[in-house]
Structures are given as C-alpha cells and as structure tokens.
Amino acid sequence: MTSSNFVQQTYAQRAENFSNAAAKQLLETMERKKSNLCVSVDVTKSSDFISVIDTVGPYVALIKVGVRRIMCGHETLFAGQDTHRCTR
Asked: Could you state, in order of their start, the residue ranges of all structural domains in the chain?
C-alpha cells in the first residue's frame, strides 16, 4: 500500500490494518465520532476535570489526562479514597 492510498482511507479502513488494540480502538472512535481532535486536560480539581470532559467529550476522539496532577490537588477524583501522597 502506498502512502497516498493510506491517506485516502477512512479511519475505519485504517483500523483494519492494525493489530494493536489501542490503535485500532482509537481509529474506530475517530471514525464513529467523525473527529480526530484530542484535548489535554491539565487541571487540579476533579470538578474542573469533570466539567471539561463533559463539555468537550462529544467532540473529541481522545482526552489526555494528567491524573497525578488531579490527585495531587486539593481534592481527589476518586472521592472517598485516600490516594498516595504527592510531592510538588
């Protein structure tokens, strides 16, 4: 397959050529959502995290999360769980 043929393929067609489950799932998500957008959520409060992903979730294919940063903030994403101690 030449690179020009690859570029002309849909994300679903590209997914068929991957054996890596994560790559395949991402391409299938991009096809389903008709989006190749990614957002990086770099917040420290879980309420901000939830707000951002609720807002952008329907429009993006991938959300990159700095979980350690969230867990090291003043509150944790996982309510009721005592997470590890974080150093800044």
From this structure: 1-33, 35-88
